[in-house]
Amino acid sequence: MRESLASSAAADSQTGGGAPLDGASEGLLCRWLSTLLGAELDEPTLARYRQGEAAPLLGYLCEAHGLDEQAGRIEAALSRLVMFTTPRLELAADFAELFLADARSGAPPYASLYLDERQGFLGAPAERMEARLAEAGFAVKREVGEPADHLAVMLDYLGHRLERLAETEGAEALALRRELATFLEHELCSWLPRLVARSAEVRTASDLYPALLALTEAYCRRLAERLRLA
Amino acid sequence: MTISRRSFLKGAMAGSAASLIGPGLLTTAAAGVTEQGVWKTAGSHWGAMNALVKGGKVAEVKPFGADQYPTEMLNGIKGLIYNPSRVRYPMVRLEWLKNRHNGDRTTRGDNRFVRLTWDAALDLFHEELERIQTDYGPWALYAGATGWRQTGQVHSCGNHMQRAVAMHGHFVKKVGDYSTGAGQVILPYVLGSTEVYSQGTSWPLILENSKTVVLWGNDPYKNLQVGWNCETHESYAYLEQLKAKVAEGSIRVISVDPVRTKTQKYLGCEQLYINPMTDVAFMLGMAHTLYNEGLYDQEFIDAYALGFDDFIAYVQGEAEDGEVKTPEWAEAICGVPAERIREFARLLAADRTQLLFGWAIQRQQHGEQPYWMGAVLATMLGQIGLPGGGISYGHHYSSIGVPSSGASAPGAFPRNVDAGKTPEHDNTDFQGATSTIPVARWIDCLLNPGQTIQYNGAEVTFPDIRMCVFSGCNPWHHHQDHNRMKKAFHKLETVVTIDYAWNATCRFSDLVLPACTQFERNDIDIYGSYSNRGVLAMHKLVDPLFHSRSDFDIFTDLCRRFGRDEEYRQGLDEMGWVKKLYDECREANKSFVPAPTGDQSTFSMPEFTQFWKEGYVDFGPGENWVRHADFRQAPEVNALGTPSGFIEVSSRKIDRYGYDDCRGYPTWMEKAERSHGGPNSDRYPLWLQSVHPDKRLHSQMCESEELRATYAVQGREPIYLSPQDAEQRGIQDGDLVRVYNDRGQLLAGAVVSDDFPPGVVRLQEGAWYGPVGPEIGALDTYGDPNTLTLDLGTSKLAQAPSANTCVVEIERFEGEAPAVTAFGGPTLVEI
């Protein structure tokens, strides 16, 4: 869809993945992860996943980032959903246990709960993220009802910025790559390992969401490396 | 080759992404101007305040200007708003969602929840109300439990819950409360009003006239930190003056208490140690001295009291029990040397004495008796109605004793259905069961539907309750014996809770709806509580966090489901109600003529817009006042509300009830269990008192990390114990200990303190409950004393809670301590 605009890809240095970083494709990946981490799956969408519609996304993560293990874990979790009579509800309950219930348990997806010493909502990371969104001309939709440091919001922002990267060239692209690498390192990679560790302690019916968190963490780390190397 | 494969994947991925990527969470927005922040007025039980709101966040909280003695608990406000334990979305328990009332009820509390939209959640709530009213009737629905809500007269959550549910159908309510259950039932028989919630003699008159002040089981310096309305802590100025008078020796203050209290230490006053739960025996010994040494006021008794002869016959050993209540008899029970009892009686009779009773001693088995006996002592001293004399049951509560301004306070959003309207389901047939449960007996009711008990001169038959609704009320904190509660909750078909934090009540519910905190909506309240010092604008500081909503919005939307939302809110929105309550208050104060000056301008109030902008209206200081002075002045004209109109030392009415646990005059009765040689003390020798907490309001703010860090021990609620008890058990200060009895067990952190005598330990009530697992008797990981307390009515008269009748044993905890689950949310608690 944006391949024709992916001129910055050509400027990318060769990386460990053996291919230039394609901002448009990475943007899609981020917004896909944001969607999955932002809300529970409804029945039609879950059906699409169970029919294998996510395979190209997972395939790209393997091909472009070498995340075979993490992607395989997602596929395995999806295939194991046959064990449940009401898979959507079980996944919704997993989602709730990890992300929605009392944030002292589960794996709350808010940077402030990991990076701010007060460990309450809307700490300094949320303020930084709000400022970052405002600077880029964005705000969280009112109906979303989440602070800016929610992982899904941060990934959505990252997606938009990566797509912007695809539209830029030269020094501007270089500066944006560095900015995004710093963002990933400081605002995401700094707490995602802890989020993943907490998710591993939660008793979920399916491995889908813990696997998704592990994938997200590995992807962010990989993406930061590749942006930095560029 | 690689490139073409990558290109292929990119194309496929884009197609896949198009169907799997949602609409996104961001919208475009113009860059905002950096906000400097704005100060707003707000209020809470912990104090009125000013808050700096910056960038849509509460940045700073300062005490309200008029509050000269603010509590450190204001430091917890930000932590409460932004607490990780906030309920953020409507949630439903998965098993209940799948199978509703036909599901496995024993899984309630296993807490696998899923999120709902507000519409879906309120549809479910409405469907359940419909089902209960249609399939059963009003007897099957309990929406009676209300408690310490958040402050604010528009959003008072109990009013909203009960009005909305009542517009749908009738339901079972409660009578009484956990604070003063025994006191508020016995005292109308004796002194003609509940007394516990009545304005008391003004502090300036006590300071001016009293020679002796007795704090009886009373810790006002601790308990006055919180108030029912937006507190401004005016009582503390008088406590400061009292401290000075103690220091100069012009007033003698004696704290009758097993424990050296915070107040005692602040005032630097004396302590009279007494064995726990033996106050009545002690007071009987005093009565014996007063009577036999001729120190009682016969003239006062003749003029103002009835039934003294029957009572004194009991003291003199002329009643059925044949026991003379000498100080020596009392000493064996209460642990106070007989001679000290005599000296104390003589001291009180020697000059003007103000008795100030706390509420703790009526929260025990036979809790009616110490209050009744206190009134009898005050009657024998003959100083009721004199400045600085008589008895008070409330000077530790919500500014009682601070002179009242006399102004009218704002009303409230209505609790009931509007006059002339009827509910959707107008069935009032409770099938012979009561429509009103004595509040502390509701677990008995769940466990024993159909059972009949005695209550305050009547028979009460328990209804067969199937559904409960709670709003801003946390019974899993305030009710006794949680393991018994677990069994009772297995019987319920549906539990709906509206709250802002994932407390234990939420975790034992099926449907949990997120209310916002009081800092996220506009409201109005008085400040100064009983002094009614002024009206406070409670500005909304920030928008409701996450998906929470105000009680007003939640219940308006519930009523929309049966087409009565407009009637519910009377056509007004939130600010419409704030203004309405203010305007009505302004109108009432316009026509008010305060005595004796007749100055109508005293309570002039500005237009609403000015008030809202300025944040408050101050009514100025009130006039001094003496409780029962009017009665003393003209007992026939200003008769008390007792059956006779006089003080009833003995009550014929109670006597006619024929209760074996509350007779016609105050009596000493042994307790079901008691330390210091009492029943069961051989197995469990330590008395557990569960006092009001020092750094929270009941269970409110226990979730505050900031405050908990100032008192928790190894992350657990502190248990205070004496050096002697600690040494005997090999316990060091700071150790983790297991506290247990036959009803339950909990972990707590030991604080060894010589404020505590041997045999007495303290866990503050309001500690959040967090058991390790599903089984009955599971170890509570944080230290909620109601894991251990006794769920027993005080007597057939009041049927009030007996939380302070509780004995336990303690041991050092060995091994790996389980993690605290009290604040850990729903996934970790199972039953």
Automatic annotation (TrEMBL), chain A:
GO biological process: protein complex oligomerization
Ion transport in keyword set: no
Superkingdom field: Bacteria
Keyword set includes Chaperone: yes
Entries under InterPro entries matching the protein: DMSO/NO3_reduct_chaperone, HscB_C_sf, TorD-like_sf, TorD/DmsD_chaperones
Coiled-coil zones: none
Pfam families: Nitrate_red_del
Keywords assigned by UniProt, alphabetized: Chaperone
Protein's name in the database: TorA specific chaperone
Organism this protein belongs to: Halomonas shengliensis
Record lineage: Bacteria, Pseudomonadati, Pseudomonadota, Gammaproteobacteria, Oceanospirillales
TrEMBL record, chain B:
Catalytic activity: trimethylamine + 2 Fe(III)-[cytochrome c] + H2O = trimethylamine N-oxide + 2 Fe(II)-[cytochrome c] + 3 H(+)
Cofactor(s) the protein needs: Mo-bis(molybdopterin guanine dinucleotide)
Main location: periplasm
E.C. numbers: 1.7.2.3
Keywords noted in UniProt: Metal-binding, Molybdenum, Oxidoreductase, Periplasm, Signal
TM region(s), chain numbering: none
Single GO MF annotation: electron transfer activity
Pfam families according to UniProt: Molybdopterin, Molybdopterin_N, Molydop_binding
Domain Molybdopterin oxidoreductase N-terminal: 43-82
GO cellular component: outer membrane-bounded periplasmic space
Limits of the Molybdopterin dinucleotide-binding domain: 686-806
Cofactor binding: number and manner: Binds 1 molybdenum-bis(molybdopterin guanine dinucleotide) (Mo-bis-MGD) cofactor per subunit.
Post-translational modification: Exported by the Tat system.
GO biological process, one term: anaerobic respiration
Domain Molybdopterin oxidoreductase: 86-560
Localization per Swiss-Prot or TrEMBL: Periplasm
Similarity-based family: Belongs to the prokaryotic molybdopterin-containing oxidoreductase family.
NCBIfam families hit by this protein: PRK15102.1, torA
Role noted for this protein: Reduces trimethylamine-N-oxide (TMAO) into trimethylamine; an anaerobic reaction coupled to energy-yielding reactions.
PANTHER family: TRIMETHYLAMINE-N-OXIDE REDUCTASE (PTHR43742), TRIMETHYLAMINE-N-OXIDE REDUCTASE 1 (PTHR43742:SF4)
Protein's name according to its UniProt entry: Trimethylamine-N-oxide reductase
